[in-house]
Amino acid sequence: MNLTYPTICQKNDGKYYIDFYLNKKRFRLFNAKKIGIDYKPNNYPENKRLKATEQLAKMVYDHLVKNNYQFEESKECPELQEFDRLISLKLNEPLNKAYKKTLENLAHKLREELKHSGNIPIKFIDGIMLKYN
After folding, report:
1. What is the pTM of this model?
2. Three-class DSSP labels, the chain
3. If you average pLDDT over every residue of the chain, what do you get?
4. Angle, vertex CA 46, rays to CA 38 and CA 22, nearest 5
5. Are 17 and 26 a contacting pair, CB within 8 Å?
6. CA–CA distance from 57 to each of 2, 64, 65 (Å)?
7. Rounded alpha-carbon distances, angstroms, from residue 31 to 38, 39, 50, 52, 80
8. Which of 4, 24, 35, 56 could potentially form a cystine with 63 if both were Cys, beta carbons 3.0 to 4.6 Å apart?
9. pLDDT exceeds cutoff 80 at 78
C-alpha cells in the first residue's frame, strides 16, 4: 500500500482542497464525504479555511491508515473475520470426509448466528447439539 500525506492546495477561486496519492491514484478532496463525515472546510470564513483544510488532511490520512488504506470501512465485524479464519484453519487440516462435511454444516449455522446477532448464545449451541445427538 502506497499513501502520501495530503498536501494543501488552493484553486484560483480561493477554494482549498487536499491532494494525495493512494496506490498510484491521485485524489483531490474538497470535503470529508469520501470518509463518511460531513466536514466542508470551504464553508468556513476565508481566514479559517487553511486551518480547516489542514484538519481535513489529518482526518483523511488517519482514516486511511486506520482502515487498511481503503476509504470504505470493512463491512464484516472483527469477530466474523476471526471466526472465518479459525474455521478455515481447521478445514485445511487432513480430516475425515464425513467429519469435514459435518464441520462445514455446523460452521455455516454458527456463522449465520454470529452474523445475525453478533454473538453465539449457549442456547443456540445447545439447540444445534440436540439435533446431532
Report:
1. 0.56
2. CCECCCEEEECCCCCEEEEEEECCEEEEECCCHHHCCCCCHHHCCHHHHHHHHHHHHHHHHHHHHHCCCCCCCCCCCHHHHHHHHHHHHHHCCCCCHHHHHHHHHHHHHHHHHHHHHCCCCHHHHHHHHHHHC
3. 89
4. 50
5. no
6. 16, 11, 12
7. 8, 6, 13, 10, 32
8. 35
9. no
Mean pLDDT of the region 59-72:
86
Confidence label for 44 from pLDDT (cuts 50, 70 and 90): very high
Q: List residues bridging with 20 in a β-sheet.
A: 27
* Cα distances (Å, whole numbers) of residue 20 to 5, 67, 88, 102, 103: 6, 17, 37, 50, 47
- Mean pLDDT across the stretch 23-31? 95
C-alpha grid cell, residue 113: 448466528
- Beta sheet of 16-22, edge-to-edge order: 7-10, 16-22, 25-29
Residue with cell 470551504: 42
Q: With contact defined as beta carbons under 8 Å apart, do 56 and 18 qualify?
A: yes
Q: Exposure string (b/e) for 20-45, b if CB count within 10 Å is 16 or more? A: bebeeeebebbbbeebeeeeebbeee
